[in-house]
Fold this sequence. Notes:
Blueprint: H1 7-18, H2 29-46, E1 51-59, H3 62-67, E2 70-71, E3 76-84, H4 97-105, H5 115-131, E4 137-138, E5 145-148, H6 152-155, E6 161-169, H7 182-200, H8 216-238
Antiparallel strand pairs: 1-6, 2-5, 3-6, 4-5
Helix pairs in contact: 1-7, 2-7, 7-8
Amino acid sequence: MSSPASRQELIDWCYRKLGAPVIEINVDPDQVEDRIDEAFLMFQQFHMDAVEKLYLPHQLSAQDIANEYIQIPPPIISIIRVIPVGNSNQSMGMFDIQYQMRLNDLYTFTSTSIMHYDVMMKHLALLNFEFNTDSGLQFTRHQQQLRINWDWSNSVGVNDYIIIECYRILDPNACPDVYNDKWLKDYCTCLIKLQWGSNLQKYAGVQLIGGSQLNGTEIYQQALAEKEKLEEILQSTFCLPIDWIMG
């Protein structure tokens, strides 16, 4: 059990690190569950190992077009871009310029230079950049609705496909190794310790048998300092770098 692989094993690991069963940890089980949820929320929002990047295919339905938005499943927390794949209204089939270039030129690449093809593709990309603008999009993880700024009635059709480039939270139950992440274990332990100190502060000055006193304030201050240090490590070491914004 030194490597937790479930939520309960993680809780047991935190208790042992705090001194249990030698020391009684004065924290209610519901409080522990709340602190674990709080730690996971911080982990999933800022730790780069808590999410995965993926390309999610989606087939547009009549309901999507009528709503003018796409309902996104909850594990998705961030959307980078949308890539149209099949467009029934705008596809030109064999008359598409790229189709014709591949049909007429690609077969000669084994014996001739691809320089002409490379220059032509860059030229097409420049034309696309100058005359076509990318469709803007809006998405918030709490609303779970992807809104794309295009003409839904003319730009896309029912059964067209798009690819959504996004980030999804790793499911700890599907990836149990998440529970063994060092930063997460330390942060969970720290938050439980903080709750423990907070609970004991109301007994400050109460004398126990033998003359000893409960020092909840010291436990609380130690945990608070550890919490600040762990959050600094999270920001400096485990956060993805902020993208440059140009415009």
